[in-house]
Every structure is written in structure tokens, then in C-alpha cells.
């Protein structure tokens, strides 16, 4: 039986590949997800992206008790959303917070995360590799 991971991405990540490539790189979100699926075939990887905070909360609630592990890049909502924080806290899924850019080397407001203390860990600043690093951790925790 395949293990399952949910990956939830927030606002503007649908623009990866064209959005500020000097910060976020040239790879698309679809490219990242496809590469993860190819690199971790032993996992079923559910993926959801939305620019809407409410839709992200709904998806966390929907998937959060069905999956042992999740990866979340809440993007700008990382710094503002008590609702997403509360949703993560309310479910049994162990989330890992990821960011493509090094948020600590950017604007002051990006240095505070409302999510990091309710996530199992944070990976930031390694571009698309941040997702792969999260999957590597998940693999190590789930006997893969």
C-alpha cells in the first residue's frame, strides 16, 4: 500500500516559473509536483493550490486527518493567517512548513511565521529543493 502525503500551496505559487524568477527560480509548481511524484513513487502525493485563505483552510481540514504527513507553503499567509494556523492545529497531520526563498534574508515582515510552531519543522531558502528536503524527512520518518 502506498503511503500518502498532502502538499498544500498558497497564493501566487501558481505563478512559479514566471513570478520573480530571481527569487523563486524558473521551475513551475506543476514541475515541482511532477518531479516529487517521480522521485517518490512509493507515495501518493495529493496536491492543492489556492489563492484563497478559506479554500486553504477547507483543504487542510479535509485532508489533515487522512494523511500522516503534509507539506505546506502558505506563502504570504504564513505571516498573516491565524485561520490556517488554527486549521493545522486542529488536524492530526504532521505538517512541514516550506518556503522557496530564504524568508530571513527578505523583508522584516517575512521573518515571522504564524505557522512554524504548529508545524513539525521549517525548511526555507533552498528553492524547489525545499520540497524534496521535506519529502526526504517524511521518508525517514515513515520507514521508507
Summary?
With 144 residues, this protein is α/β, with parallel strands linked by helices.
Structural summary, described in words:
This protein is an alpha/beta fold and 144 residues long. The chain has one domain (3-141): Dehydroquinase, class II (Rossmann fold). It has helices at 21-24, 29-39, 53-63, 82-90, 129-141, and strands at residues 3-9, 43-49, 69-73, 94-99, 121-124. It has a five-stranded parallel sheet, sandwiched between helices. Helix 3 packs parallel to helix 4 (82-90). The longest helix has 13 residues, at 129-141. The chain is globular, with a radius of gyration of 14 Å. The two termini are 12 Å apart. The mean pLDDT is 90.
List keywords for this structure.
3-dehydroquinate dehydratase activity, alpha/beta, 5 helices, aromatic amino acid biosynthesis, Rossmann fold, DHquinase_II_CS, DHquinase_II, 144 residues, 3-dehydroquinate dehydratase, globular
CATH class designation: Alpha Beta
Roughly what percent helix?
25-40%
Number of helices, counting only DSSP H or I runs of 4 residues or more:
5
Q: What is the distance, rounded to the nearest whole angstrom, between the alpha carbons of the first and last residues?
A: 12 Å
What oligomeric arrangement do these chains adopt? Answer: single chain
Shape assignment: globular
Amino acid at each position: 500500500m502506498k503511503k500518502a502525503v498532502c502538499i498544500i500551496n498558497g497564493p501566487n505559487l501558481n505563478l512559479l516559473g514566471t513570478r520573480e524568477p530571481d527569487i523563486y527560480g524558473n521551475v513551475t509548481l506543476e514541475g515541482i509536483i511532477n518531479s516529487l511524484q517521480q522521485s517518490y513513487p512509493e507515495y501518493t502525493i495529493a496536491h492543492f493550490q489556492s489563492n484563497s485563505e478559506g479554500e486553504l483552510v477547507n483543504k487542510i481540514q479535509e485532508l489533515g486527518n487522512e494523511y500522516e504527513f503534509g507539506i505546506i507553503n502558505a506563502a504570504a499567509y504564513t505571516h498573516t493567517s491565524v485561520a490556517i494556523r488554527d486549521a493545522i492545529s486542529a488536524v492530526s497531520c504532521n505538517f512541514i512548513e516550506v518556503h522557496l526563498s530564504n524568508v530571513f534574508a527578505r523583508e522584516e515582515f517575512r521573518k515571522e511565521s504564524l505557522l512554524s510552531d504548529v508545524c513539525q519543522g521549517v525548511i526555507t531558502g533552498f528553492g524547489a529543493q525545499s520540497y524534496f528536503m521535506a519529502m526526504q524527512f517524511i521518508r525517514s520518518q515513515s520507514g521508507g
